[in-house]
Write a structure and sequence with these properties.
Elements (H helix, E strand, L loop, with lengths): L1 H17 L10 H6 L1 H10 L2 E6 L5 E4 L14 H22 L6 H14 L1 H5 L2 H7 L3 H8 L4 E2 L2 E2 L1 H15 L2
Antiparallel strand pairs: 1-2, 3-4
């Protein structure tokens, strides 16, 4: 009896997947054009299909993915695109859950990019979030610039990214 249930379950599960729309990858123009955060993050992270160590030695792959990445790992472009879409949505939900004031799409994208790069725990504990929830939008914009270090050292790439996040946040 159990095998019959498993068979039906597998059948209906496969049927549901086949009848769902195929999600476009975030690097396709349709998705990138709709998702400001994914577009922004993909530009700054770049995409590497072979695992590498970032500037502080964390194993990374795809568009900055660090979860379960080991030396020698590889992925396809499709995997990297899917991971980006999944992780951007996770970080966007985390940002939305922490922010108590209204954000426009650019402000949400800038905060999502920052959280994607520094982690949700750091974002939730940041002065940037406190200022945001106090409604100090100019103070928030200036706080992006504070997050310019990796391993205790100022990194020019982070200086540039934070300036771009700040500009995006201030864009109407």
């Amino acid at each position: 009896m159990k095998s019959l249930i498993e068979l039906f379950s597998a059948f209906f599960s496969a049927f549901r997947r086949e009848n769902q729309p195929i999600a476009e990858s975030p690097t396709t123009p349709a998705v990138v054009g709709k998702d400001t955060a994914a577009q922004f993050i993909s530009r700054w992270e770049g995409c590497k299909l072979t695992a590498y160590q970032d500037v502080v030695g964390v194993w990374t792959i795809g568009y900055g993915r660090t979860t379960n990445v080991h030396p020698g790992d590889t992925c396809t472009q499709e995997q990297a695109d899917a991971w980006l879409a999944e992780e951007v949505e996770t970080f966007r939900r985390g940002v939305r859950g922490a922010v108590l004031v209204p954000l426009n799409d650019n402000q949400l994208a800038a905060c999502t990019s920052l959280a994607y790069n520094i982690g949700l725990a750091a974002f939730r504990g940041s002065t940037l979030l406190r200022k945001l929830n106090d409604g100090d939008y100019q103070g928030v914009a200036d706080q992006f610039l504070v997050w310019n270090k990796a391993g205790g050292r100022v990194v020019q790439g982070l200086v540039n990214r934070r300036a771009a996040e700040r500009d995006l946040f201030l864009k109407g």
